[in-house]
Amino acid sequence: MRMSLSIRELWRMPAMKVAEHIADRTPEWKKLEADVRWCRGGGKRDPERIAEFARRYRSVCGDLSLAVAMRWPATTTRFLHELVADAHTQLYRAESFKIRRWGRTVLVDVPRRILRDPCTWIAFVVFWGLFGGAMLAGLLRDDFAEAVVGRDTLEKVEDMYAKPMETGLFEDSRTAMTGFYLFNNAGIGLRCFASGIFLGVGSLLTMAFNAIFLGAIFGHMIASPSSSNFLTFVTAHGPFELTAIVLSGAAGLRLGWAIIDTKGWSRIESLRRTAPRALEIAGVATILFLFAAYIEGQISPSELPYTFKALTAAISTALLLGYVVVLGIRARGEPSL
Amino acid sequence: MIPSAAGTSPLDCTVLVSTPENVSFDFRIAGPFSRALALFVDIAVIGFCVIVIAFILALLGAAGVGLLLFLMFVAFWGYGGLMEAFWNGQTLGKKAVGIRVVSDTGLAINAGQAMLRNILRSADLFPPFFPGAVAMLFGSRFQRLGDLAAGTMVVLDGQRSSPRPPVADGVTERMRERIPAHFRPDTALIDCLAAYVGRRLDLSAARRLELSQILARHFIRSWSLPPKINTDQLLCAIYEHATMDEEHRSARRDRDLEEDRSDADVVEHPRTLEDAGYESR
Question: Under an 8 A CB cutoff, do B191 and A183 touch?
């Protein structure tokens, strides 16, 4: 209200020469520029200055209206456009980063969404179905794994598990392996999520490829003489790692499905509304990859007895079930997909 | 209330945003090439940091390799998102090039938008099709897929023009008096005059005369002004006249009638290019 009044006053006043008016207002514009810089510097603790900034911003908005209406010179109008845009971006900031809100997202919103989203179950079935199928094929036919994985890779895998864990595999490079597993696997997970934007096809292909690749190796190694070494290694981190791939794929499918089933929005608007929620699921998947990388680097190659590794896997599975099922069901309210 | 400027928006890549203050301002959209340059700078910065850190961590042996890979993961996937989230939509590369990410509502972006658009970059750069580059060709905001999903756009920033007042200095009352009181220029003419008046100080005096002649010739003919009138001052006076309201105009007319009429506003026009401010090589 106050704003429109002041424009009206300016409109009615005996016209100053434009040059004079601009010269009069320039100090105020310079002050607003300084305010914008101050806001960008993160200085947000001084309420008086913020109030002053808001007031000044509104008065410069008036100048911009006047400049456009009265056809001030292009350079000045351009300057005011930029100044108002910068100040606007600072004044109407989006919500800031709040730990508590993120805690709620991770512990309440995401489990509920994971449990009720059909994309999760499609991803689950696709991954585990193909994984199981490839494992069976690898078990039953000697040449399947070789056809899928390739001779060289298969030989490397066989070499790796030729010796039992008790001899201290990767003894001196466990931290390095942890880093590598995070960099490699979590990177694959994020790419899997991102490629979901191609109508979900990218996520499906990434999941399918990993399921068949890993399944074939599993089947081959279980049938091989060093199967006990292999199983001792993969048991502990398996639950977190494989669930993380499924969740990455599910997040990607959610992203792609938003473009197909728009629920009445335009395709881009539908994508925009869904993407933050899909990103949260991908974020949880990345956390799981981090856990898995730690276990894979530190516990899996250690000389600890198999029972301990199996216990790790059991606890991981229990945690995952507790997270998705217990927290998911407990969280009341409409699912917001 | 305020006459709208509809139909006069430039053919530039701008996006109009309306604020709660009931004004509209526009952002200038950054093109693909400045964005590619910013990306290149960012990649160079990350690469340089990774190499430096690698040398330092090499002292730690295998544990250092693990730490390095962890940092590389954070750098590859988090650099853009974290920088943009906590540094007002800019990475080092964007800062260097002078562009900024804002939400397509004109607001600052939040952390989620920043992370999303940077994680989706891997889909945008998917070889061999580079879907992000294709997506930029559609729509008016050069948004890649990550921008579309996050609802963001990249705008020009930091190349702020100066608010310099249009200098219509030294317009004599005699010159003002030469403009017919009933003269009402149309908006296109006022814009043209405003552009001239806003920039005339960048030009030499002779060049001003040369340029202003092109438009002023028309007025000299139709208002029967002396052919050697100072056309620079004439355009300034017309601009002043055009941006003045009725009340003020008539007050000025009354006052002007009292003053004497000299021919001080007549100058010698340049006849040659050298006169007009060109330097011969």
Answer: no
